[in-house]
Amino acid sequence: MRIGIVSDTHKNLYMLDKAIKLMGDIYLIIHLGDCKKDLTQINTKYNLNYEAVVGNNDFVREGEVEKVIVINGKKILLTHGHKYNVYFGIDRLYFRASEVEADIVLYGHTHAQNVEWVNNILFINPGSTSLPRDRKPGCVKLTIDEVGEIEVEPIRFEY
């Protein structure tokens, strides 16, 4: 399954639209908070399946702060990251991932793209589509095939 991952869109529908187009053929899109409503607004154009969690800037806190989903046998923890102080590292998030036996953790909040393996758990932060604190706006395309093989494609783009 091809999955698009975005976070921290902060009401910039133009940049979210650009990210979705750059990810190409995806089946599911995941929004990791901070204006998750942006996804429901733009998705009228794409009609994709989606999952979303709320972040610290989702002032109308409709939805879950964290959830676990399973795709092709891989347990995936979705969270914005603010509850785990990810600005100061992913240690607390790692312990939560271990607790729920996650294979993959998707988080945002830092506005900086990051992909790393820690003790057989894959951590992915797509960065921000609109307000990056690293080089450029970003998103990630994640593919999990039928046997559970994982491919990660970080994507950067211009304003």
Description of the structure:
There is one protein chain. With 159 residues, this protein is α/β, with parallel strands linked by helices. It has a single domain, classed as Metallo-dependent phosphatases (Purple Acid Phosphatase, chain A, domain 2). The chain contains three helices and ten strands, in the order E-H-E-H-E-E-E-H-E-E-E-E-E. A hairpin with a 2-residue loop joins strand 4 and strand 5. The longest helix is centred in the N-terminal third of the chain and has 11 residues. The radius of gyration is 14 Å and the shape is globular. The chain starts with a strand and ends with a strand.
Class from secondary-structure proportions = alpha/beta
Task: Report the count of strand segments.
Answer: 10
Shape: globular
**CATH architectural designation:** 4-Layer Sandwich
Taken together, the total number of domains comes to 1
| Gap between N and C termini | 28 Å
Tally of separate helices: 3
What letter string, H or E per element, gives the SSE order?
A: EHEHEEEHEEEEE
The overall average pLDDT, rounded, is: 96
CATH C-level name: Alpha Beta
The percent range for helix content is 10-25%
- What is the CATH fold-level name? Purple Acid Phosphatase, chain A, domain 2
Largest sheet: 5 strands, mixed
Strand order of the largest sheet: 3-2-1-9-10
Radius of gyration: 14 Å
Low-confidence stretches: none
Strand percent estimate: 25-35%
CATH homologous superfamily heading: Metallo-dependent phosphatases
